[in-house]
Design a protein that fits this description.
Number of domains: 2
CATH architecture of the largest domain: 3-Layer(aba) Sandwich
Structural class: alpha/beta
Helix content: 40-55%
Number of helices: 10
Distance between the termini: 23 Å
């Protein structure tokens, strides 16, 4: 693994980690953009597995987005534009033009690809898994204001309850009364995973608002690269599939693939079948020099 720190245009820094062949050419590099409440370290198993599956001569780059890991905090004027600028900074260093985004990272990838159309940073191949973007009201975000209020007030158990209920509509978890769920989560809040979630909640409020609070229209993404791949987990919340279907219908030449056993967390968990599918997509046509 190679670790680097990049400076951003607004005076921040990004921690970048690369796996596989260090000097891989642009056509054999895949940038992984991670989701909300997750660090680059959590994507290490996936990044390593993807690099190994792609084979010799390939590299997988993953970075800590703002407010986590070795990267600087979100700036006061943080927005999706910040995320897009950071993607540009990373691609400018690595030279890569293949991008994969998971969950909220999928939203960042989609918005960056749209912004980069017709520029030197235009992506060659783009794939997203369970992209967390609100397409024509595909995601009910009515819970976000309450979540933000709980985070601002320091009520971690209630914030976590609102987050889990909001992101898992229609499930048994979502039917548990909020006070009851908050009480249950308070008991398990000392686990390592929940401690990390608590640390990342302030930045999570900003990124969820930037990525999902405002409704986007599917037609806005019609300029995405031909061959863009929308992946969803068959066992992921239904709204991810609705979002992917709407985007697929709007993007000419795109494909929609459903991972039969996939859940939302299959990416960082390096689910074998999904890793193979993603590697196959990026290696189908490589314009490596």
């Amino acid at each position: 693994m190679e670790e680097r720190t990049l400076d951003t245009d607004d005076g921040g820094r990004l921690a970048l980690y690369s796996y596989g062949t260090a000097d891989a050419p642009a056509g054999r590099r895949v940038l992984v953009i991670g989701g909300a409440f997750l660090t680059a370290l959590i994507y290490r198993p996936f990044s390593m597995a993807l690099a190994a599956r792609l084979g010799e001569g390939w590299a997988v780059d993953v970075y800590d987005r703002r407010g986590r890991g070795g990267s600087s905090e979100q700036p006061a004027d943080y927005s999706m534009d910040t995320e897009i600028s950071d993607v540009r900074a990373v691609l400018g260093i690595t030279g890569g033009r293949h991008v994969f985004g998971h969950s909220l990272g999928g939203s960042v990838a989609l918005n960056a690809a749209k912004e980069f159309t017709g520029t030197a940073f235009e992506m060659d191949r783009l794939a997203v898994y369970d992209a967390a973007v609100n397409i024509d009201g595909s995601v009910d975000m009515s819970w976000l204001a309450g979540f933000a209020e709980s985070v601002d007030g320091g009520d971690f158990p209630r914030a976590m309850a609102r987050l889990k209920r909001g992101m898992s509509p229609g499930t048994a978890l979502a039917r548990i009364p909020e006070p009851v769920l908050a009480g249950l989560l308070a008991v398990v809040s000392r686990t390592r995973a929940n401690k990390l979630l608590r640390e990342l909640m302030p930045s999570g409020v900003g990124e969820l608002k930037a990525a999902m609070e405002e409704r986007r229209h599917a037609a806005d993404f019609a300029s995405l690269p031909e061959g863009t791949c929308f992946l969803v987990g068959a066992k992921s919340p239904e709204y991810y599939k609705v979002t992917a279907e709407r985007l697929h219908a709007a993007v000419p030449g795109s494909s929609l693939r459903v991972s039969p056993k996939g859940v939302h967390g299959s990416v960082p968990a390096a689910f074998k079948e999904l890793v193979a599918d993603i590697a196959g997509y990026f290696s189908e046509t490589s314009n490596a020099a």
